[in-house]
Write a structure and sequence with these properties.
Blueprint (H helix, E strand, L loop, with lengths): L3 H9 L13 H10 L4 H17 L19 E3 L2 E3 L2 H4 L3 E2 L1 E3 L2 E3 L9 H5 L10 H16 L19 H5 L6 H17 L4 H15 L7 E2 L6 E2 L27 E2 L51 H9 L2
Antiparallel strand pairs: 1-2, 3-8, 4-5, 6-7
The structure holds protoporphyrin IX containing FE and 2-acetamido-2-deoxy-beta-D-glucopyranose (8 copies).
The site of one 2-acetamido-2-deoxy-beta-D-glucopyranose has 7 residues, from helix 3.
Length: 317
């Protein structure tokens, strides 16, 4: 791993452990802590490390004892419910929004996990994977306040402005959302990001994307207010000032080329049906409204409080 010595040196120096000053963004602070020089290249590298790790699970050395299963892990669980997001990424489901039509598209066409483990977005710069991964680096770079965002070495976000439109035909539910956000949180934790910072990011992701019928909100400054709900299944909690007329009710994505095992994929609320018809998962009893408000604390897995201690233990040797 190319960044091993930089991360090791920074962590050993304890710089990642000090309290982040309020006038320094999360991006800038951890770029300095982990990669020393706070420039555009290193900020982009930080985002690459965190996003790649969230997507495929922890792969860098050394690790601080935080295991990240990864968004592409077919055996995910969130709050005891099975979650498998793979069919949304590999073309297994007709869940991509192609100009208002639900189509199946493979987003792992740039070499899959292998280039990600080399801290790259994809092997092939024309692949769907390349666009998805680089868009995620850019998007999260803006969200985390990178000071070099949009400057030479850190391209500004060039993907779709509305997160609702992008994710519309996925009809994602709170468990799928919770799993995704938890992987981002675990990835950050695996690099020694402080719990308070992880909580802040989790809270932002929750309030921006994890409610249905959200009024327009600005996420990327240059793109202005946009419809942003990513959680659009009927079981998602309703936003404050809900604007449901802006959100079309669409059915669960059709299976295009996937063999969904028990508990994989789901087929909950079809057009407002209140009774979820879960395909084999153990959640039949979960009352959607019971989990109505997103709890930022839920994104922090048990034991994460010990992250700082784990870093000290790992690097004091
Ligand atoms: C807080 C939660 C999430 C955020 C902030 C987020 C953000 C994004 C962004 C910025 C893109 C790139 C859009 C573009 O290139 O135009 C994207 C694409 C995508 N996301 Fe999410 N996402 C979230 C949750 C999820 C979840 C839970 C899934 C579950 C399967 C998912 C699946 C995808 C897929 C398949 C794409 C590619 C879609 C396309 O390019 O057409 N996302 N997401
Ligand atoms: C943040 O504030 C401290 C003093 O409170 C100052 O030394 C530092 O330069 C400031 N950093 C930024 C990025 O403005
Ligand atoms: C940022 O700093 C690194 C060294 O840490 C250097 O290799 C890289 O060229 C610098 N990038 C810019 C844009 O100055
Ligand atoms: C991921 O992290 C866990 C916990 O530190 C560790 O046991 C595991 O070996 C790591 N996996 C990889 C592929 O590095
Ligand atoms: C997921 O579980 C299956 C069945 O137990 C196993 O064969 C597979 O290796 C697991 N995959 C991962 C990435 O853990
Ligand atoms: C809801 O709308 C009212 C009136 O426009 C506004 O005062 C309030 O701040 C909004 N609440 C949220 C959470 O956006
Ligand atoms: C959901 O149900 C529809 C209609 O029965 C079906 O076409 C589709 O393949 C199902 N999707 C999943 C993910 O099970
Ligand atoms: C379906 O998936 C299999 C295995 O991933 C692949 O070999 C095949 O080409 C796919 N078929 C279509 C029509 O996409
Ligand atoms: C997951 O569990 C947490 C903590 O009990 C709870 O606050 C949250 O609402 C649950 N999320 C879902 C989707 O069930």
């Amino acid at each position: 791993m190319r960044f091993t010595s930089a991360i090791l040196a920074a962590a050993a120096a304890g710089s990642a452990l000090a309290q982040r000053p309020s006038n320094t963004s999360i991006c800038d602070y951890y770029t300095t802590a982990l990669l020393k020089e706070n420039n555009a290249t290193n900020q982009y590298t930080l985002l690459t490390l965190v996003v790649n790790t969230a997507v495929i699970g922890n792969y860098t050395q050394p690790n601080v004892g935080v295991s990240v299963p990864g968004i592409l892990n077919p055996n995910g669980t969130y709050n005891g419910t099975k979650v498998n997001l793979v069919p949304y990424f590999n073309g297994g489901l007709a869940s991509t929004n192609d100009n208002g039509k639900a189509v199946a598209r493979n987003f792992l066409d740039g070499g899959g996990a292998a280039p990600l483990m080399k801290n790259m977005p994809a092997d092939d710069m024309k692949s769907n994977q390349y666009f998805l991964m680089t868009h995620l680096y850019e998007f999260f770079g803006s969200l985390l306040g990178c000071s070099q965002y949009g400057m030479k070495g850190f391209p500004e976000y060039s993907g779709d402005a509305s997160m609702y439109k992008v994710h519309k035909y996925m009809v994602l539910d709170p468990y799928q959302m919770g799993y995704f956000i938890e992987q981002v949180a675990l990835s950050a934790a695996s690099f020694g990001v402080a719990e308070s910072d992880i909580m802040a990011v989790g809270q932002a992701l929750g309030s921006l994307f994890n409610y249905r019928c959200e009024p327009e909100k600005t996420v990327i400054k240059a793109q202005g207010p946009q419809w942003q709900s990513i959680c659009t299944d009927q079981s998602c909690p309703l936003a404050d000032n809900a604007t449901c007329s802006a959100y079309e009710m669409v059915p669960q994505p059709a299976v295009a080329n996937a063999t969904l095992a028990m508990g994989e994929g789901r087929n909950a609320s079809m057009s407002g049906s209140a009774t979820p018809t879960m395909s084999g998962s153990m959640t039949g009893t979960a009352s959607p409204s019971a989990s109505a408000s997103f709890n930022a604390a839920a994104i922090v897995a048990p034991g994460l409080t010990g992250v700082a201690a784990a870093i000290v233990a790992a690097f004091a040797l």
